[in-house]
Amino acid sequence: MTSATVDVDSAYPLTSAHVEALDRQGFVRLSNLLSPPTVAHFEPTITERVLALNAMHLPMDERDTYDRAFLQVTNLWQHDDRVRRLVFSPRLARAAAELLGVDAVRLYHDQALYKEPGGGITPWHADQYYWPFASDRTITVWIPLQDTPRELGSLEFARGSHHFSHGRDLPIGDESEQALQEELAARGFEVDSAPYALGDASFHLGWTFHRAGPNRSTTPRRVMTIIYVDADAVVSEPVNDSQRNDLTTWLGGTAVGSVPETELNPVLYRA
After folding, report:
1. Residue range of the domain that includes 206
2. How far apart are CA 251 and CA 264, in angstroms?
3. Measuring CA to CA, how many Å separate 5 from each of 35, 145, 165, 226, 261?
């Protein structure tokens, strides 16, 4: 594979329609955000690192709902230079900044999310429950590393739910799945559950409610995610134990009211 076929540097051709879709829906799907050869270049290394670093080894029937949802390995960029190139990609970071409407974004952290064959649902939740930021200018890119039909557990979004405050105090789990499933349906939120072709990806805001179905196939659903935040966003007072943990783990103990200018949170794009 030549370097010309692996592109994580050039600008993605975003349009005003993409930005408007994110503002309206809370998410946007982007066709061919990364070319299939580019995904193929990074997938084996990401998978190798997930298998090496994964700490969950319980049989599926001995896990709780969260641990049945996926194997989760974070900040892979610290363990491999090839993965670092993807996580620090100017193409992805620029798209994140332009979608958010900010001049610059910094890295919060990355997460590989591998849903094993027979893996369960990912319950309804909003990511920002876990994040101690005084800004809603946060966004995650969800990059499948294979074609991802619904049978593998593709990501589903409640369209427009980033404007819905009910359930923002719920951590991911059985309670959030039941309560949000009922409330989102009662309020008439449409669920987008489109499949992903290889190279497609999506961006969603921190307060957008989303879930994924079980993996009904015989192959793992392999996904890489990167979380970005407005480079000028400041840390807020944590309101739950998860935010307190994140403040220490991913933000280097940055003081409340300060910008997290740490080695873990570099600025990845500035206009």
Report:
1. 12-253
2. 7
3. 8, 16, 43, 22, 33
Number of domains in the chain: 1
Predicted confidence (pLDDT) at residue 81 exceeds the cutoff of 80: yes
Mean pLDDT, the chain, as a whole number?
Answer: 96
Alpha-carbon distances of 131 from 9, 151, 232, 259, rounded to whole Å? 28, 30, 15, 14
How much is the pLDDT for 68? Answer: 86
246's tokens: 């994140």
Per DSSP, 235 falls in state B
Contacts of 14 (CB under 8 A, 6+ apart): 95, 98, 99
| Nearest alpha-carbon partner for 44 in 228, 226, 220, 227 | 220
Query: CATH number of the domain that 95 lies in?
Result: 2.60.120.620
> Whole-angstrom Cα distance, residue 54 to residue 145?
18
Q: Which residues pair with 55 in a beta bridge?
A: none
